[in-house]
Amino acid sequence: MRKTYIYHTIIVCFTVLSLHAAPRLTVVAVVDGLTADNLATLRPYWQQGGLRTLSEEAFQTTIAYPHMVYGGNETTATLMTGVTPDRHGYTMDTYFARRDRKIHTMLEDETTRGIGTKKKISPKNLLSQTLTDRLRLMYPQAKIYAIGLQAPTTVLLAGHAANACCWLDPETQQWVATAAYTEGLPSAAFDQNNTGRIATLAARQWTPRMDITTYMTPTQQERKKSFAYTAADVLLHSPQANTLVIELALAIQKTEQLGMDATPDLLMLQLNTLSPTALSDKISSAEQEDMYLCLNQDLGFLMEQLDKRIGRTNYQILVVGRPVMGIDPQTLNDIHMPVQQFNADRAAALTGTYLMALYGHERWVDGAYGQSIYLNRTLIEQKRLSLETLQRQVANFLMDFEGIQIAMPGHEAMQYPSLGSTLCKKHTGDVVFMLQPGWQLMQGEKQVVDRVIDDKPLSPLLLWSGSIRPMPQGQLDATDVADLIF
Q1: Which of 163, 426, 449, 471 has its CA 20 to 30 Å from the CA of residue 376?
Q2: For residue 185, how many other CB atoms are within 10 A of its CB?
Q3: Which of 294, 324, 308 minimizes the C-alpha distance to 150?
Q4: 133-139 LR contacts (CB < 8 Å, sep 24+)
Q5: pLDDT over 70 percentage in the chain
Q6: pLDDT for res 17
Q7: Residue 9 pLDDT exceeds 80
Q8: Which band of pLDDT confidence, cut at 50, 70 and 90, is reported for residue 18?
Q9: Would you say 200 and 206 are in contact if contact means Cβ atoms under 8 Å apart?
Q10: Nearest 5°: phi and psi at 200?
Q11: Alpha-carbon dihedral of residues 414, 417, 419, 422, nearest 10 degrees?
């Protein structure tokens, strides 16, 4: 009797431990433009498929970002590292460099080379450990691959420790990569390049999956003429791009045997729901709806294949939305909340003129980017002026500009509650300002720096696991997402 009791106790303990063990394979899909409202609106369309399964079986919540959101990959960096831009260093997709007074991409790295591309990028400038780095430290033999549609997103998904990452080049219609990772271009991506799979899908016509009248939000133009694209013309904003990412993910899983042993592996994916004419993350056209319908099918195919290959209880999928376009300014204008634009370059020019009037005809301002004004520190030192005095004068001057909520010296802004988590010491200017609600940041005449008008965008998160595991309650912070995986 005692032996039987001990035997059952061992079985129960083993079962409990196995329920909380890391799955053999984790798939993390960051989906551009995915919103909870869109998922809820389109749920009646999904009789089956991946989004249908996730809506019924996954843990679901929303996440908020504890820093300003511009619609770039500052959100991806936060999701992957579990910390805010002041710590991971990725404040915006680009930054102003004092060394040459030019704008540079955040991940550029002249010490590495591109594979099939001229882009030289690496995760070197990402200051914090990512989800992939943590897995590598825990399991040195883990296999980690990232596949995406744009270089910055894919590299951030890969982190510092992935085996390889690759992204889709719409011009060459090839998978390309960076030599920053040990395996370079994955062999499965090389095979797809050689077989012309991308060109085959890109040559296809993208037309509605259903009769145009059955969509919920067709535009007037779509009601008259429907919509039709050759995928190659809009490749990164077509359903075919998502299909290619899923196909390559499954090819890598098969080739590299991901999820086939006890060591946890990671597949990091970037997907997209934003169609070529999308004006916001909120669905406002039949073609945007169609992007969701096709994504549902692709995710369903991914889960179906993983069920067959490694077993339903041996993997998990985390799907999280990334705010890209926010609320359409025209929509806000229609409800009498017009969006106004603040031009950082003009502010810098006027600031330079102001300082000339005070201190003489010299170039006192090196430039402006984002929410920062960069003063000519070399000149200030040569003239033996107080940098702090000029910072105060410029901050007070900017406070008179329409649209500016607050302006202050950069070192003070790092401690300011609404700005501190958004700024990184390495890239912060001498004077930092924050715009009032309803104002959009511009660089030059056309470049929109702040694409997300929504002050506090929420992203949907869905975590499906084939095994039972405890889940948190309520809304999460974006810095909590990485901890959900392990």
Answers
A1: 449
A2: 20
A3: 324
A4: 133/159, 133/160, 133/161, 134/482, 134/486, 135/161, 135/264, 135/266, 135/485, 135/486, 136/161, 137/161, 138/486, 139/263, 139/264
A5: 96
A6: 35
A7: no
A8: very low
A9: no
A10: -65, -50
A11: 90
Beta-strand pair 476-477/59-64: parallel
What's 389's DSSP letter? H
CB atoms near residue 221 (< 10 Å): 12
φ and ψ at residue 168, rounded to 5 degrees: -90, 125
Structure tokens at 62: 């929303």
C-alpha distances out from residue 456 to 83, 214, 373, 448, Å: 17, 33, 25, 18
End-to-end CA distance of the chain: 38
pLDDT in tens, 272-316: 999 999 999 999 999 999 999 999 999 999 999 999 999 999 999
Report in angstroms the alpha-carbon separations of 27 from 24, 70, 267, 452, 467.
10, 26, 5, 27, 14
Structure tokens at 447: 């470049």
pLDDT in tens, 182-218: 999 999 999 999 999 999 999 999 999 999 999 999 9
Delineate the domains of the chain, giving CATH numbers in brackets: 24-326+458-485 (3.40.720.10), 340-448 (3.30.1360.150)
